[in-house]
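Hey,

The postdoc asked me to send both predictions to you directly instead of through the lab channel. I've kept everything plain text so nothing gets mangled by the mail client. Protein one:
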Amino acid sequence: MIQYSLRCAQDHRFDSWFQSASAFDKLHAANMVTCAVCGSTEVEKELMAPRVNSGGEKPKAAPDTPLSAPASPAEQALKELRKKIEATSDYVGRDFAREARAMHSGEAPARSIWGETRGDEAKKLIEEGVPVAPLPFLPTRKSN
């Protein structure tokens, strides 16, 4: 595996891993290497310093932060959003489309809900004028 620092025509910079240098060249030639920010296929390799394992000092151990702790302010904001949604609305699971339609038509009392539905079903809800929005997280599945 090889990691490249990449830059798109819009000057977005990001890193990506490839199976080999020739794998990168093949994917790049087929316009399959895209910017992680804007999706542009005009991507070029950045100048990089090689990483060499000298066998010297080993890297320091990671801090004692649990893996479940948010890694960034954005991740923390998503965690807080999820907590608020779960506290202020009802999870209706896979009955989301049915419940949303029933509330929209007045057959069920209006309330805040969240749940799961297929993409085609979500599109139908929008076309019917039912106010829905995707959430930036998946429901937590509990197993026995």
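Protein two:
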Amino acid sequence: MTILEAIDARHSVRAYQDKAVSQEDRQQLEWFVKKCNQESGLNIFIRYDDPEGFDSRLAHYGHFRNVKNYIVLSGKKTADFDYQCGYYGEKIVLFAQQQGLNTCWAALTFNRKKVRELIPSGETLCMVIALGYGETQGTARRSKTVQDVVETGSEEPWFSKGIDAALKAPTAVNQQKFVFSLKDGEPFIRVRGLGSYTKVDLGIVGCHFEAASGHRVQH
């Protein structure tokens, strides 16, 4: 599965099979997470076989079921921390999709007390991502249009490909509070309006745009 196929195939999944992540998949994921940490300076890690991370009233309210594995996005708090967590978290999400696993971003609907105990002193918890083999592959969600998210664009094919992929990116409560423009011929993304976790969303969206267009996004 290519990265573009992963972008098309990936949907949020909240219910998982009672099946452990294979050793082969764990090895591949650990290799990729290590690579992301080296690039970003973050402390992203995966907890396997740990149902306590999603054993909470909020998790049940959010319809999460049988979540035993999850990706923890954490690290030293910097000015770019939220964007980096979104960007590299989504890189791992798409890599997991390529391995045949499913995911779901979670900002509040998990056991925060339990997960915070895993974070080293001096580091900040951003979000977690449920991980495993889904009962289903999820379903596509409603999306804004190109006109809704582009201020000034380009007629170049790379720009259209990038925006198409950006519109498929997951965002908090599907808010899609982002807008693209061009600065000196290069793509720029910023938050439009108010919303929750918008800086994390920018990183997720930027990851999709870059994967499809081959152009680095400024923010």
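Summary for protein two, as requested: The mean pLDDT is 94.

Thanks,
C.
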